[in-house]
Automatic annotation (TrEMBL):
InterPro entries: Ribosomal_uL22, Ribosomal_uL22_bac/chlpt-type, Ribosomal_uL22_bac/org-type, Ribosomal_uL22_sf
One GO term (biological process): translation
Protein name: Large ribosomal subunit protein uL22
Annotated gene: rplV
Subunit structure: Part of the 50S ribosomal subunit.
Keywords linked to the UniProt accession: Ribonucleoprotein, Ribosomal protein, RNA-binding, rRNA-binding
GO cellular component, one term: cytosolic large ribosomal subunit
GO molecular function: rRNA binding; structural constituent of ribosome
Physiological role: This protein binds specifically to 23S rRNA; its binding is stimulated by other ribosomal proteins, e.g. L4, L17, and L20. It is important during the early stages of 50S assembly. It makes multiple contacts with different domains of the 23S rRNA in the assembled 50S subunit and ribosome. The globular domain of the protein is located near the polypeptide exit tunnel on the outside of the subunit, while an extended beta-hairpin is found that lines the wall of the exit tunnel in the center of the 70S ribosome.
Family: Belongs to the universal ribosomal protein uL22 family.
Protein's organism: Candidatus Termititenax persephonae
Length: 131
């Protein structure tokens, strides 16, 4: 019984690996990657339509950026690969750090203090599957 279960999960994993990932990316988004990563955790592994619904009702500013990237990934899948929107699953959702903008601010006693302005690269990949 256990062997059959392992064979089925291995076969399902092979099918998922063989399907292409359709990606969309937003670079140099002016928000911290940590803030974006918190929101990406909520949608990773869900159906694309469910992910859009979750993002639409979140109050975080990062949700607006992620929603745009997810819309783009869905549009890429529909247009380029002729996939149905209803069958898409969010396979990957990653926020990497982008360029760090370094700015200066006046400090006490005539000194300058550094301000770090973080940027993020948001990448979302969808694929056909069921969840």
């Amino acid at each position: 019984m256990a062997e059959k279960k392992n064979e089925k999960t291995a076969a399902a994993a092979e099918v998922v690996k063989s399907q292409p990932l359709i990606k969309a990316e937003a670079k140099m988004v002016r928000i911290s990657p940590r803030k974006v990563g918190r929101i990406l955790k909520l949608i990773r592994g869900k159906k694309a339509a469910a992910g859009l619904t979750v993002l639409r009702f979140l109050p975080h500013s990062a949700a607006r950026y992620i929603e745009k990237v997810l819309h783009s990934a869905i549009a890429n899948a529909e247009h380029n690969n002729k996939l149905a929107k209803d069958n898409l699953v969010i396979a990957q959702a990653v926020a990497n750090s982008g360029v760090l903008l370094k700015r200066w601010r006046a400090g006490g006693k005539g000194r300058a203090q550094r301000i770090k302005k973080y940027t993020a690269h948001i990448r979302i990949a969808v694929q056909e599957g069921s969840k």
